[in-house]
Specification:
Layout lengths: L2 H7 L1 H4 L2 H12 L2 H7 L4 H9 L18 H14 L1 H17 L7 H14 L2 E5 L17 E5 L2 E11 L5 E10 L5 E8 L5 E4 L13 E11 L3 E6 L8 H36 L13 H26 L4 H26 L1 H4 L5 H8 L9 H12 L4
Parallel strand pairs: 1-4, 2-4
Antiparallel strand pairs: 2-3, 3-7, 4-5, 5-8, 6-7
Helix pairs in contact: 3-6, 6-7, 6-9, 7-9, 9-10, 9-11, 9-13, 10-11, 11-13, 11-14
Length: about 400
């Protein structure tokens, strides 16, 4: 299925339950191998491109999918049920495309090129923000990555961590500062093939192992002047666009929540099948016949129902950043609880590498790392309650 055919048929007609269930099954086929080998899922992303899904969030005025947040959430959730590392790369793509469409600071020709290449070539983009010295930029501070001003452009030097998707990215949106007396701060756009980019393959995590979130080092990377696509003087930051910030935070919480909810749903599906098939000789019946197992699965169903209703509200209503953060935390904790309950029921079987439950557990724990983290979300909610935010 090509991009054109997908868009001609219409998003609503293609992204139905049957299509998404098939997509989940297809992506699940190699999920164990990607996890075991920490291999980047190039084939999965190529499949998503063939289905037209890499450009689903691209501006409809540019020929893209123009999907709304609720539609994007359904795709992310289905991909995550199959292979969540692929879903995280796709999530970053969708978040960037959503805010790119109405960003007035980007040169129009670069904006068109990034969107066109996503649609035609499956080009991926992500932000590169985290640094060794700085940690998470959500906690504040100026970047140590520096763009040195030249007569005809910039020379970029710096070091980034946790660059999700770097083995497959075409465009790198690098958070940096200039070397001016009053530095500019913001985003410099870098094509992956530009000389001077070095990848340090350091990503070897417990979960989400196939995201390829390696380190990237920039050494005198030469960029045109107009590739400083979204920058501002550090002493004169732009006025806060509260609705835009709230919309981005809502989208981020929705799509990240959908990933880890998808992991939990995959764990639930495996558990239900295992309990229905496992029949110890001493019992003479499947474990699913026991009241204890039925009660535990009922509790899991309750957690997943809570997640679905919260993600429905988050993707369809203009909630505040505070509310979005609280829902992201709640959905993540519910997802972790689902997999922990499944492990409690299955014992050694659940922890065996012969079964996927231990993989789901390692993956779902990563949901706690993503912004907003639990402490930040709760502090913001507390400050808001006291009128201090």
């Amino acid at each position: 299925m090509s991009v054109v055919n997908l868009l001609e048929r219409g998003i609503e007609n293609v992204l139905d339950d049957a299509f998404l269930a098939v997509l989940s099954r297809e992506l699940a086929e190699d999920a164990e191998r990607y996890d075991r080998d920490s291999e980047f899922p190039h084939a999965n992303l190529e499949r998503l491109h063939r289905y037209g899904l890499l450009g689903l969030a691209t501006d409809g005025r540019a020929g893209g999918g123009g999907a709304n947040l609720a539609q994007l959430r359904r795709v992310i959730g289905a991909v995550a049920v199959g292979e969540p590392s692929t879903a995280l790369v796709l999530c970053m793509q969708y978040l960037y495309h959503r805010r790119l469409a109405d960003n007035p600071n980007w040169p129009e020709h670069l904006k068109r090129r990034v969107m066109r290449e996503a649609l035609e070539e499956g080009a991926l983009i992500n932000s590169l923000r985290v640094e060794p010295e700085l940690g998470s930029p959500a906690r504040g501070g100026l970047p140590q990555t520096v763009a040195k001003r030249q007569a005809d452009g910039w020379l970029l030097d710096g070091h980034k961590l946790y660059t999700t998707g770097i083995p497959g990215l075409t465009w790198l949106a690098v958070w940096a500062r200039s070397d001016d007396p009053v530095p500019l701060v913001g985003t410099w756009l870098v094509h992956r093939d530009t000389p001077g980019i070095r990848i340090v393959e350091s990503w070897d995590h417990l979960g989400m192992r196939a995201t390829g979130s390696h380190e990237v080092i920039f050494e005198s990377v030469r960029l045109p002047l107009d590739h400083a696509v979204d920058v501002y003087p550090s002493d004169r930051p732009p006025a806060l666009d509260a609705p835009a910030v709230a919309d981005f935070n809502r989208a981020m919480a929705t799509l990240l929540g959908a990933i880890y909810d998808g992991v939990a749903r995959a764990a639930r599906d495996w558990l239900v099948e295992w309990l229905a098939q496992r029949a110890p000789a001493s019992l003479g019946a499947p474990l699913s016949s026991l009241g204890r197992g039925q009660e535990a699965v009922g509790q899991i169903e309750g957690w997943l129902l809570s997640n679905r209703l919260q993600l429905d509200a988050l993707s369809e209503r203009p909630l505040t950043s505070q509310e979005a953060g609280l829902i992201k935390v709640a959905v993540t904790e519910n997802a972790v609880a689902v997999v922990e309950k499944a492990l409690e029921l299955t014992g050694n079987h659940g922890l065996s590498r012969h079964h996927p439950l231990q993989r789901h557990y390692r993956n779902v724990l990563c949901g706690r790392v993503h912004t907003p983290q639990r402490d930040s979300a709760l502090v913001l909610a507390g400050k808001t309650a006291f009128g201090l935010a």
